[in-house]
Task: structure prediction
Amino acid sequence: MLRVSNTGAHYFDERPRAESRPGTVSLVLPDLHLQLETDRGVFSPDKVDLGTRILLESVPAPPAEGDLLDLGCGYGPIALTMASRSPAATVWAVDVNRRSVELTARNAARAALDKVRSAHVDEVPPDLRFRAIWSNPAIRIGKPALHEMLTRWLDRLTPDGVAYLVVQKHLGSDSLQRWLADQGWPTTRHTSRAAYRILKVTPR
Result:
């Protein structure tokens, strides 16, 4: 399981201590335009992160049905995009940060995307398997915790499932690709743009 700090100082803490300061950001994609609630203490609260945007602009449409996963959902731009593009699928938006989970739930309700399930990482049913995982993973939690997190969730891909991870080159995308391959997950570079890599990972 993902370990969390007890300082409350980071977006990957379970209960961030940063005083609430609500705001809104726009997510504008060729097929989607959403206003999303954000707050301090979550990832990229002032704008949709460039890596997230590149992921959403680059990957193929998610499977039309089944369970899909946004790993590290923040306030929900990835989960809501998946749900919008695959309205018959159930999209699990998971995060260790409970403020993020609450924001995603509110944003999904506001967008009338009623098949988004926003949940803490430890509240996802253990028997669920995912046909797709999209993630801008929390690289800054450090390699041991990152590897533990990815192992936990990538092993829940269905046999025909696929994961897409966006990682900055200078934050270790190439070494992460090698590690994933060494662990038995076939991993290729789906695309590269603005110093970000989109890694495509299939089941081991």
